[in-house]
From TrEMBL:
Cofactor(s) demanded: Zn(2+)
One Pfam family linked to the record: Peptidase_M50
GO MF, one annotated term: metal ion binding
Record membrane topology: Multi-pass membrane protein
A GO CC term attached to the entry: plasma membrane
CDD domains (alphabetical): S2P-M50_like_1
Protein's name according to its UniProt entry: Peptidase M50 domain-containing protein
Similarity comment text for this entry: Belongs to the peptidase M50B family.
Residue ranges constituting the Peptidase M50 domain according to the UniProt record: 119-181
Amino acid sequence: MEFVFQIAILIMSVVIHEVSHGYAASYLGDETARWQGRLTLNPLKHLDPVGSFVVPVIAYLTGGFIFGWAKPVPYNPYNLRPGRWSEAIVAAAGPISNLSIALIFGFILRSGVTLGWASQSFVTITAIVVFINIVLAIFNLVPIAPLDGSKLLYALFPENTLKFRQFFERYGLMLVLFFIFFLWSYLFPVIAFVFRLITGIAF
């Protein structure tokens, strides 16, 4: 049952993540996501067979945690308002949405525990919401394309990005999968620290 809850929370969290990209692009002048019907919280419009099903199951069976992604919301960078940070703003919208969810549910969790009205099942489910959204926020900030962190890297160092982009466009997905299955442990202490900071609960 906990696995089902985790999958449901993951799906809605990645959907909010992707829709946030679309709304940020729309705010900056690009309506590609709206035209393709992707500015919706309907999960069926966003689910990715590998990222939303295969990877979460493998991650749960091998590492005991849930992780995955949805289909990226499309946007046309040439339609964005001119500016060095336009793509970075669109990219940052996703992790910011997940961090916002983590903070909101972390506050609810802290309040429930402090005031004594939170049941154990409520604490468990709320903690899962916080944890999954922290994972999504931090992981997506890793500077490997197509993750959001790569767009931030391009904005910080625009003069050095052409070779980066060419390399990541060719090998990006392979590097992401390599990172998930072999370098994930390096992110976990950061995730645990942020989780404890937000909830006051040691993970």
